[in-house]
Design brief:
Bound molecules: phosphoenolpyruvate, manganese (II) ion
Mean pLDDT: 96
Helix content: 25-40%
Strand content: 15-25%
Number of helices: 11
CATH superfamily of the largest domain: Aldolase class I
CATH topology of the largest domain: TIM Barrel
Order of helices and strands: EHEEHEEEEHEHEHEHEHEHEHHEH
Radius of gyration: 21 Å
Distance between the termini: 38 Å
């Protein structure tokens, strides 16, 4: 249920409603808009009586939220959310390009890529130190040494770091180094990890599981917001279909769907979404044109030698080309880069 406060209500009026919600044993989440404040009541909806709240002073309206997700829904927060990562705003007018290698492999590989993507105009650096691989025989990442290299790359370039955390007991460690924590597609349903991440104050990039529905995607984000962390950016990275000429099928329909239903920013990962370097630029254009707030792009100095995902990685030159092409698209849709 959400409570819409009258536009002239004071902080004391709002506080009074919040206290009443707590007295009744529920949790209150505040969303302060420019016009008015909305208070979400979280708890078992069968136990609420509308009148318990509608008759309180300066309450304009009490509306049940019928959708299973509450805090991520646009009903609860009509304005777009902006998530700030190392000074970079995701979800605002600017389209944010996050780029870097799939895996952190060495200092030379990471730093050369960090300098190259920065020079081309990327806003944030990505790189996996903990890798969730399909095969146990594949490269599993450099672990904490990889995080240290990412820190060094931030020192040298000033770019904020986006990196994946796989285990709930590693969240604090990864958060010490990262500016944004990535939840991998395979972990979108890992509620223990989601809860651990909900307890820290770091932005989160949540990738969509390749078999998840829109509802499940938003419910996983709800775990993080309901635990107290509202700094969530969603990421579409392709789903499983019968199509066999690409690694996954990039579901661009989900961009307008998320924009209608949720206030959270959404970015697109055409690298995993296609699995093919030659499809990355065309699908990047399409994603931005469809309203995505940014892109996550894999870049490698020498894709043929990459420890992971070489076939979908752009060379430094190709990434520069992508950035040039993005400038034309963002200006056509009235955004900036
Ligand atoms: C990645 O970003 O390198 C990655 C492993 O992505 P996903 O979890 O979407 O497969
Ligand atoms: Mn990858």
């Amino acid at each position: 249920m959400i409570i819409v406060m009258e536009s002239h209500s004071t902080d004391a009026d709002i506080q009074h409603v919040v206290e009443r919600i707590h007295e009744l044993g529920f949790t209150a989440h505040l969303s302060k808009g420019v016009e008015r404040t909305i208070i979400g009541i979280i708890g078992d909806e069968r136990l609420f009586k509308k009148e318990q709240f509608s008759l309180l002073p300066h309450v304009e309206n009490v509306i049940p939220i019928l959708k299973p997700y509450k805090l991520v829904s646009r009903d609860f927060k009509p304005e777009n959310s902006i998530v700030k990562v190392n000074g970079v705003e995701i979800g605002g007018e600017k389209v944010v390009i996050i780029a870097g290698p799939c895996s952190v492999e060495s200092e030379e590989q990471l730093l050369s890529t960090a300098y190259a993507v920065k020079a081309a105009g990327a806003a944030l650096l990505r790189g996996g130190a903990y890798k969730l691989r399909t095969s146990p025989y594949d490269f599993q990442g450099l672990g904490e040494n990889g995080l240290k290299l990412l820190s060094k790359a931030r020192e040298k370039t000033g770019l904020g770091i986006v990196t994946e955390v796989m285990e709930s007991n590693e969240v604090e460690l990864v958060a010490e180094y990262a500016d944004m924590l990535q939840i991998g597609a395979r972990n979108m349903h890992n509620t223990k990890l989601l809860r651990a991440i909900s307890k820290i104050r770091k932005p989160v990039l949540m990738k969509r599981n390749y078999s998840s529905t829109l509802n499940e995607f938003l419910m996983s984000a709800e775990y993080i917001l309901s635990g107290g962390n509202d700094q969530v950016v969603l990421c579409e990275r392709g789903i499983r279909t019968f199509v066999e000429y690409t690694r996954n099928t990039l579901d661009l329909n989900i961009i307008p769907a998320v924009k209608q239903l949720s206030h959270l920013p959404i970015i697109v990962d055409p690298s995993h979404g296609t699995g093919r370097y030659d499809f990355v630029i065309p699908m990047s254009r399409a994603a931005i044109a469809a309203g995505a707030d940014g892109l996550l792009i894999e870049v490698h100095p020498n894709p043929q030698e990459a420890f992971s995902d070489g076939e979908q990685s752009l060379t430094h030159n190709a990434f520069q080309r992508l950035m040039t092409e993005m400038k034309a698209i963002v200006s056509a849709i009235g955004r900036r880069i």
